[in-house]
Design brief:
heterodimer, A: 263 residues, two-stranded antiparallel sheet, 11 helices, 44% helix, B: mainly alpha, Rna Polymerase Sigma Factor, Chain: A, Arc Repressor Mutant, subunit A, 2 domains
Amino acid sequence: MNALTEDDRLLAMAYVDGELPPQDVAAFDARLVLEPALASVVARERTLRASLRSAYAPVLDEPVPAGLLDLLAMPAPAAANDPQPAGSNDAYRAALPHDRRWRWPTWGAMAASLALGVVFGARLLVPQAATGGDALALNVGGDGAITAQGGLRDALEQTVGGTVTDPNAKVGVGLTFRNHAGQYCRTFALDSASSGIACKQSEGWVVAQLEHGTNAREGEAGGYRTAASPLSPALLAAIDAMRAGDTLDAAAENAAKTRGWKP
Amino acid sequence: MSLSPLALRAEIAALLPRLRRFARSVTRHREDADDLVQIAVERALKHLDHWQDGTRLDSWLFRIMKNAWIDEVRARGRRDEVLAPEEAGEHVGFSETGSRDIRLSIEKAMARLPEDQRMAVSLVLVEGLPYKEAAEVLDIPIGTLTSRLARGRDALQAMLGDGDLTP
């Protein structure tokens, strides 16, 4: 073990934690080049910090228990009224079973209410990955519409034939079909165990259905839902209600992609 | 400008994954962790007016969780001592490879840290809070925080050995 003075030990720690005063960082960097013992302590501390973060990172990807979300949902009267936010997918929303797994009506109502008094763009349901930054997100707009952002939007735009090009992708895209308005709609699964359906509209991929993860038990076994996971019965029923015609094969998906998923 | 209670609820909802992560390292048990988050969220909702605009909402919630957990541990008395009995005498270090094994080793090592060191390590190294925020969450001076961090890190390094921690 390296014998460092207590002061240097604390300096190394502060350096790794980003707590050194900015004016001291360059001098410390220079010492790291010259003092292998110090550099080795910094390397060990960096590794420990990274290991701790990655050890607990999977918790972020677990579905949040519905009981916790319910604590923070809209007060009961507002949720019961369930005002349908304006949008072309009202029909789909209205067809939603009032199942606890479908979080969207509550959040939709909340977002719509927020728009009344507060300028507020909350990112809900999909937390930032521990290391991935804004890898993917759902954005709740002022009009209550949830649009795909970041990695989810990219995956919806680019995935063809269920092929995930990025092995670290946190999202999978499954089936593609056209709804009664002729828009292309695609099912997606996030590794936070949320899944849903998004349809391409002029403003982007608007989430028409969102099922918040209920398969927490799967996560406990160490596995995470992937694009290959079977769709839930509720989601399949939603697809059947929405679709006009069959699902697209890979060639048809490719053609639609080439047209920018425009109707 | 202050956030409406509704907006605060949405902000807290967005923080739930991080609250659960903090709770997992503090309580060391999945069920305890979600119970703790639930208690803390209920307390927070009752006292939304106590949150000061311009301060960090996550720090405020971590602090509520810390207090709730201290209450819980006191209520349990020494029952806490019998937690994690299965690894008594077991070597925490790892020779196997694989991120899952590393993750379990780290969780075990964290579970063995004294409560005060574990919270300091969790807030700064896992949650990424600045020292100042972490010290406020724990109601301690920054010097106390850094010494807990140093002792916690030394203990973790000793338990995990010099093995390669990277998956």
